[in-house]
Known about the structure:
Layout: H1 5-61, E1 68-69, E2 80-91, E3 96-106, E4 114-122, E5 135-140, E6 146-154, E7 156-157, E8 166-178, E9 184-186, H2 189-193, E10 196-202, E11 208-209, E12 213-214, E13 231-238, H3 241-264, H4 267-272, H5 274-289, H6 298-325, H7 345-349
Parallel strand pairs: 2-10
Antiparallel strand pairs: 1-10, 2-3, 3-6, 4-5, 4-8, 7-8, 8-9, 8-13, 11-13, 12-13
Helix pairs in contact: 1-3, 3-5, 3-6, 5-6
Amino acid sequence: RGNPRPFATARSGRAKEEQMSPQSRRQRLYFTGFVLIGLIVLATAVLGPIALISVVTDSGQKHVNEAFAITPTDVPSGKYTRIHVDVMAVDEAQRLATLRVSGYHYCTTDCGDKLKIGFFSLDADGRGANSIPPSASVAVPGNSAEVNDKIQLPISGNLLLYPFDSYQLRLGLVLEKVNSDNSTTILAPGEARSQLIVTVQEQANRLEMSAPKLIDPTTVQPPKAPFQYAFVSTMQLYRPEYLKILVALMVLLITAASVYAVLLRPFDQLILNASALVFGVWGVRSLILGSYAPDSTIVDILLLIVIFILLGTVSFRGMNFMHRHAGIGFLPWARERRPSPAPGAEEVEHAPSAGPVAPTRQ
């Protein structure tokens, strides 16, 4: 016949395991959330001080930015032209750099020659190497009057990668002599190098510049161009470290806070504050991106994905809420949960009677 007790014990063990499995799954989900949020908090604690140090350092350097020389700085013995170029602003969407050109022309005798300095923006990735690149010119008077002008030149870069984007300006210089009939004669590279001193400095917001790298002009010379570059240098513009850290942490923190609110809040509270939650997420965009056009950076894409997930989760929870209160059993995970009996209650209820209880003596 065998003893039926082991089978009853096995069935009871499986029932308890099935009864505890939802709680175990919930605990695993909470543990996963704890690990992820803990990593975000740890990253904030580690990278926050680094960002603060970068802010202080960058704020101090903005007032004493180093001016880099892109030509020899030795003062010639005869006449020469000294020019300083400030990178004032960068329009990342239009890929244009605004340069302020200032300086003077020095001469003691034979000061009647008027000059022009041509600034060429060579394509950084080599496209259009066989054609003459975009350019702008600045007039230099023949006397010692001050030069002060603004020009715009195209740059290469990709705003979509913000705040990890970078921009490159490959600058070619040409010195021209203005004749009496207003025609121009381009000076030979050797003659131009002996008369031109150029320095460059970065003054743009949210950007830093590395030291320019000089390039052999013959390696980037257009084959059919009617001139030769006197100097060619490459300038690299990139975001400061604090901006990279703060933007990345802000996106992570707002994502964690939004997921926490949409998953752990009761549905009746969540549905009342869903619009405020969406506007709060999108409000972070104006804080970290400023006046950049919408949908122009990867931050826009990430925030849109967060909003999409939030609204999708709200809709999913709303469907489960309606399903549960309608008494439908179509979705197994959305069925109304009934409280399970306390352990041992069934055994006590069906336990055999031991017979009449004898009265106790007083």
